[in-house]
Specification:
alpha/beta, Rossmann fold, six-stranded parallel beta sheet, 10 helices, 6 strands, 38% helix, 16% strand
């Protein structure tokens, strides 16, 4: 298991006003709306989530880097756990036209409003119970999803990723390395359930049997 960073450039391209989220808005009320993962979360006011999550091509470089790093075959089978609107999966189909992609998400709104080209390949499902056979995929990714799970579901989701993957695996979660980053994370997050330091995440990965690679995002 290795630390591999594919997404920090995407994460750092967004400006965030941490104080506004807790001082201007009712943070608890906003979080209650966000955790429904409906229209308000994806395409509503910024205080409830993305503030409008439309395709802009920013995930193309991530797909290119992942394909290159893992030397994926032209017909690779790729699963995205927590795929949202499927933008990254779409980019995989552009980088690897012969790839066979699949995605799951708990958000009905996200799947129904996914990128048209990959929408038929997505389904409503949860990470702790992946609807796929053992060793079905050459690459399983889960980016900015698993920290939204309570510990018992997080553990099972990592086991499920191991079960359905036959090749590379890559997850990205939120973390904090110091008190400032912890405060920023608490201020900014709306849906996070697992608040762990990098060392704690390493423990979770090891104890759950996860053998793939990982990366973190922090709120500096």
């Amino acid at each position: 298991m290795a630390y591999v960073d594919f997404i920090s450039r995407v994460h750092k391209s967004t400006k965030r006003d941490y104080l506004e989220r807790v001082c201007v808005h009712d943070k608890a009320e906003c979080a209650e709306i966000a955790v429904k993962f409906g229209k308000d979360y994806w395409d509503g006011d910024r205080k409830h989530g993305y503030g409008g999550y439309g395709y802009d091509g920013r995930w193309r470089v991530v797909a290119e880097d992942i394909v290159r790093h893992y030397k994926l075959p032209a017909d690779a089978r790729i699963l995205d756990v927590g795929c949202g609107k499927g933008f990254l999966l779409y980019e995989f189909t552009q980088v690897l036209p012969g790839a066979r992609v699949a995605g799951i998400d708990i958000s009905d709104y996200g799947v129904r409003n996914a990128k048209e080209e990959v929408r038929p390949l997505l389904q409503i499902a949860s990470a702790p119970a992946l609807p796929f056979r053992d060793r079905s995929f050459d690459l399983v990714i889960s980016i900015l999803t698993l920290h939204n799970l309570y510990t018992y579901d997080l553990w099972k989701a990592l086991e499920e990723i191991e079960r359905v993957g036959r090749g590379a695996k890559y997850v990205v979660v939120e973390t904090y390395r110091n008190e400032r980053e912890k405060v920023n994370l608490l201020y900014w997050q709306l849906t996070c359930r697992a608040f762990h330091t990098p060392a704690e995440w390493a423990w979770v990965f090891a104890k759950s049997g996860y053998t793939g690679d990982h990366s973190f995002i922090v709120f500096e």
